[in-house]
Amino acid sequence: MSASDGLVTRRRAVAWALLGLTAAVSYAVQTLYAGWTSTGDIALPIATAHIPFYWRFALALFQGLLVGSIAFLGLSERDCQRILDRIPVLAPALILPLAGLMLVFP
Amino acid sequence: MTPLGILGPVHLVAAVVGLSLLTASLIRLYRSEDGVPTRRLASAGGLFMAIPFALGWAMYPTYRTQIKPGLLTEHPGLVTAFESKEHLAAMGLCCVLGGVGALIAPEGLGAGRSLLTTGWMLCVIAAGIGVAVTWVPSL
């Protein structure tokens, strides 16, 4: 494998990791924001004509794709390594508290 | 047979298979120094986790109109738990997707392990809530 092939592979790995991380965080933030701004009536999802869950997930994936694409196109080798080194700590530190909040405030 | 009656068992079986494959791939990932060979197993786990997620999307409108109103009257706590399950499954699937992708490069082993572990934890909690939501109303 040549050096440039290696860099492309690393960029793809960073792009995928950032896609997953961004989509998960985006989904949680959208859901928590919707819960925070809603009336708090749990019967409301039955009464609504559309299902916000689908839109939220689609938007979260789109934002993940956007961040992943930017990372794939714009990151240097040093940045790739730096991000890959930080994700093992960053991912649980960001996602688990958000997931806990969603269990407490569904 | 209702759509829920047909899709429900498939949803359950695919989730069990997906979680089993993810567990196996995580065990291999923590034992090995190179994540690339485990990527195929983790991908299969991710794919099998996507199947119950997609089936859940297909079943949700029926659940919302036919089951949720009754559940809301008798077990309001379970309705909120069910919503949490959907949220955790969505986040878990995103993490698994990112984790499987990160394993493309050997340098992504740490990131892949971390994302897959986080995704696995969320999916296990979601599966536990799913079992409770199905089991408690039948008591």
Q: From the 3D coordinates, which CATH architecture of chain B would you assign?
A: Up-down Bundle
Give the overall pLDDT of chain A as a whole number: 86
Class of secondary structure makeup of chain A: mainly alpha
User: What's the CATH first level of chain B?
Assistant: Mainly Alpha
**What is the number of E strands of chain A?**
0
Q: What's the gyration radius of chain A in Å?
A: 17 Å
Oligomer: heterodimer
Give the topology string of chain A: H per helix, E per strand: HHHH
Spatial shape of chain A: elongated
**Helix amount of chain B, in percent?**
over 70%
What is the structure about, briefly put?
The complex is a heterodimer of chains A (106) and B (139). With 106 residues, chain A is mainly alpha-helical.
General description of the model:
- The complex is a heterodimer of chains A (106) and B (139).
- By secondary structure, chain A is an all-alpha fold.
- Chain A has one domain (3-104).
- Helices cover 85% and strands 0% of the residues of chain A.
- Chain A has four helices and no strands.
- In chain A, helix 1 (3-37) runs antiparallel to helix 3 and helix 1 (3-37) packs parallel to helix 4.
- Chain A is elongated.
- Chain A starts with a helix and ends with a helix.
- With 139 residues, chain B is an all-alpha fold.
- Chain B has one domain: Four Helix Bundle (Hemerythrin (Met), subunit A) (Up-down Bundle).
- Chain B is 86% helix and 0% strand.
- Chain B has helices at 3-31, 39-74, 76-102, 109-135.
- The mean pLDDT of chain B is 86.
